[in-house]
Write a structure and sequence with these properties.
Shape: globular
Structural class: alpha+beta
Protein name: ABC transporter substrate-binding protein
Keywords: Signal, Transport
InterPro entries: SBP_5 (IPR039424), SBP_5_dom (IPR000914)
Distance between the termini: 32 Å
Number of strands: 24
Radius of gyration: 23 Å
CATH architecture of the largest domain: Roll
CATH class of the largest domain: Alpha Beta
Largest sheet: 7 strands, mixed
Strand content: 15-25%
Family: Belongs to the bacterial solute-binding protein 5 family.
Organism: Cryobacterium fucosi
Helix content: 25-40%
CATH superfamily of the largest domain: Dipeptide-binding Protein, Domain 3
Length: 551
C-alpha cells in the first residue's frame, strides 16, 4: 500500500545487521538453501507481540505469524470461485444454508513444541470466540461448537455464505498453551507455538528470524531461514528490493519497470485485484467538519478518483467510478438498479451549491461553517506509505477548490495506528477488507458491530458512523437465505452509503507483492494465480510451502 515520494526521507530502520541476515542472492546460504528476507516499509519494528488477535502486534504487522500459525483451509482471494484447499482441516463440509461447517482435524500434525494437533484445538479456538466475543472481529456469530472424535462442527447464528474465508482463514491456536491465558486479547505470546512450517528463533528491533521445522507435517521446506525486516519508507524498500537486500515484500513500487524490474530479470511483481476491496478516506463523523453530512457530500464531489489512480497508484489499478464505491468490473453485478451507470464526477460548483444550501458561507476564498468558524481539517497517513502520502496530498489540493485548508500529517506508523483505532483523527486513508461479496467492504465503513466510543480502539468503522439501519441491513444481507432477501438488503446498504457518505472511496485496492526468483521459484503470478503474493496474508503459508530451489 506504499508508494513513491520525496516527502519522506529515505532510510533503513532494519539495516540487516544480524550475522547471516542477508538476501537470497547473497552468501547467506546453508546446505539446504538460501535465506529469504521479507520486508515492509513500516519503520521501526514495534515491541514484540505474537498475538494473532491484535492487528498492531509485531507478528501481524510484519506478517511472520503467518509462517507459524495455520488456517483450516485456504480460499484463493485472487480467484474466490476456486475450490477451497483443505489445510489443518482435511475435510470441510458446509450445510446447504452455510449456517454450520464440519471440520475434520488433519491427522499427523504436531505443534512446534512436540504436542499433537487434534480436534480439541479447533474446538478450543472457536469456543474462545464465544467466551471472548471481543476476539470475534469478523462477527461470525458462533452459537455452538461441538466435537465428535476428530470432527468439529461450528454453528452460526446466520449464513456464512459471504464469510467463508473469514471462517476458514482463522488461525488455530494450541489449547494446551492458551487455555491458561487469563486475557487472550492482550497476551503477548512471547514463545509462539504453532503448527506452521517455521518457528520463531530470534526477535530484536532490527530483524525477526524464523527457522524451518524439520518435522513439519507438510514435508521438507526449501527455504531454511526467514528474516522479517522493516524499512523506513517505500523508497528505501524499493532500493533494497532492486539491489537484492530484500527478497519478498508487500510493496507498491513507483516507476516499477525502471526502478525494479529492469534492475534484474529475476525481479518480479504480482499485483492482483483484491476481490471487492478499496482504498478509502475514513472521516471522523463524530467531530467537525465531517460530522456534517453536507460537508461530507461536498468533499465527495471534489475528490478526483482518476487522478488518484493515475498519480498515487501510477495507473496500476482501475478507477473506482461507481457511486456505490464498488470496484469495477468485479463489483458490477452487485450494483443496485438505482445506481447502475451512476458514476463519480468531480463537480466543485455542485459541491459549493450544496454547502451554500446547508448554511456555509465564504470569507474571501475561505469556507466558513454555519457557526462562523473557518473549515479546516488534517489528513493523516504514516510516513513512508508513499502512495497514501501522495493520495492525501491530492485530496488536500482538492479541498482547496472549496476554500478549505487541509493539512497533510505523516506521523510514524505506531502513532498513526493508535490514533486510527481510537478515533483521534479527522481524515485518514485506509483500506477495506476483501471478500467475494460486498459485505466486508461496506461493513468496514458502516457497521455498528465495529462501533466504539471515541478513545476506545476500533478494528474498523474508524469514523464512528452510527446507523442502526445500516447495521440491520448488513446483518440481513450476510444472514439471508435467498438472493432476493440479500439483494433487497444490499439496496438499503447502498442507498445509505450514497446518501450519508460515511466514508469516501478513492481507489481500487490490489493485493501487492514483489519478489525475486534468484534462489526460489514457485511464486504465484498471472500464469499461476494460486494465491495473493502478499506475505501479510494468512495464505502466505501456502506460498512458503510451494517454493522450490531455483537451481
Amino acid at each position: 500500500m506504499k508508494v513513491k515520494s520525496t516527502l519522506v526521507a529515505m532510510g533503513l530502520v532494519a539495516a540487516i545487521a544480524i550475522t547471516g541476515c542477508t538476501s537470497g542472492n547473497s552468501s547467506s546460504t546453508s546446505e539446504s538453501g538460501a535465506a529469504l528476507t521479507i520486508a515492509k516499509p513500516d519503520g521501526a519494528i514495534a515491541t514484540e507481540s505474537n498475538n494473532p488477535w491484535i492487528g498492531e502486534s509485531s507478528g501481524m504487522k510484519l506478517g511472520y505469524l503467518n509462517a507459524i500459525l495455520e488456517p483450516l483451509g485456504i480460499v484463493n482471494l485472487v480467484s474466490p470461485s476456486d475450490e477451497v484447499r483443505p489445510w489443518l482441516a482435511s475435510e470441510i463440509t458446509w450445510t446447504d444454508d452455510y449456517r454450520a461447517v464440519t471440520l475434520v482435524a488433519r491427522d499427523g500434525v504436531t505443534w512446534n513444541d512436540g504436542e499433537d494437533f487434534t480436534a480439541e484445538d479447533i474446538e478450543f479456538t472457536f469456543t474462545m470466540f464465544t467466551t471472548k466475543p471481543e476476539l470475534d472481529t469478523a462477527a461470525l456469530g458462533i452459537t455452538d461448537v461441538t466435537r465428535d472424535g476428530d470432527s468439529v462442527t461450528v454453528t452460526f447464528a446466520g449464513s456464512m455464505f459471504s464469510k467463508q474465508d473469514k471462517v476458514l482463514h482463522k488461525q488455530i491456536l494450541p489449547k494446551h498453551i492458551w487455555e491458561s491465558v487469563e486475557d487472550p486479547a492482550t497476551f503477548a505470546n512471547p514463545n509462539p507455538v504453532g503448527t506452521g512450517p517455521y518457528v520463531l528463533s530470534q526477535f530484536d528491533t532490527q530483524s525477526v528470524e524464523l527457522t524451518a521445522r524439520d518435522d513439519y507435517w507438510g514435508g521438507k521446506l526449501a527455504v531454511p531461514t526467514l528474516y522479517y525486516v522493516s524499512y523506513n519508507d517505500n523508497t528505501a524498500l524499493t532500493t533494497a528490493l532492486a539491489n537484492g537486500d530484500a527478497d519478498w515484500a508487500q510493496a507498491f513500487i513507483p516507476n516499477v519497470k525502471s526502478a525494479y524490474l529492469d534492475k534484474d530479470p529475476e525481479n518480479n511483481v504480482y499485483w492482483a485485484a483484491a476481490g471487492l476491496a478499496i482504498d478509502t478516506m475514513f472521516v471522523n463523523t463524530q467531530t467537525k467538519p465531517f460530522n456534517d453530512v453536507a460537508f461530507r457530500k461536498a468533499m465527495n464531489l471534489v475528490i478526483d478518483r482518476t487522478q488518484y489512480a493515475d498519480i498515487a497508484r501510477e495507473g496500476s489499478v482501475p478507477v473506482v467510478s461507481s457511486v456505490t464505491g464498488l470496484p469495477t468490473p468485479v463489483g458490477d453485478p452487485f450494483i443496485s438498479a438505482e445506481y447502475k451507470g451512476e458514476t463519480y464526477k468531480v463537480d466543485a460548483d455542485a459541491a459549493k451549491s450544496l454547502l451554500k444550501d446547508a448554511g456555509y458561507t465564504w470569507a474571501g476564498k475561505s469556507l466558513v461553517d454555519p457557526s462562523g468558524a473557518p473549515v479546516t481539517f488534517a489528513l493523516s497517513v504514516p510516513q513512508g506509505w508513499n502512495d497514501y502520502v501522495t493520495g492525501i496530498s491530492l485530496i488536500a489540493d482538492a479541498a482547496k477548490s472549496l476554500g478549505v485548508e487541509a493539512t497533510v500529517d505523516t506521523p510514524d506508523s505506531d502513532t498513526w495506528w493508535e490514533a486510527k483505532g481510537t478515533g483521534d483523527f479527522q481524515a485518514i486513508l485506509h483500506w477495506t477488507d476483501t471478500g467475494a461479496t460486498p459485505y466486508d467492504l461496506y461493513s468496514n465503513m458502516m457497521d455498528g458491530r465495529w462501533l466504539k466510543p471515541l478513545g476506545e480502539s476500533a478494528d474498523f468503522n474508524f469514523g464512528r458512523f452510527d446507523s442502526p439501519k445500516a447495521t440491520a441491513a448488513l446483518n440481513e444481507y450476510t444472514n439471508a437465505a435467498d438472493d432476493a432477501t440479500r439483494g433487497a438488503a444490499l439496496e438499503t446498504v447502498q442507498k445509505i452509503f450514497v446518501d450519508e457518505v460515511p466514508a469516501m472511496p478513492v481507489g481500487t485496492r490490489p493485493f501487492i507483492g514483489a519478489f525475486n526468483t534468484r534462489s526460489y521459484v514457485g511464486w504465484p503470478g498471472e500464469d499461476n494465480p494460486y494465491a495473493p503474493a502478499d506475505p501479510t496474508q494468512p495464505t502466505a503459508v501456502l506460498i512458503l510451502t510451494e517454493l522450490e530451489a531455483a537451481n
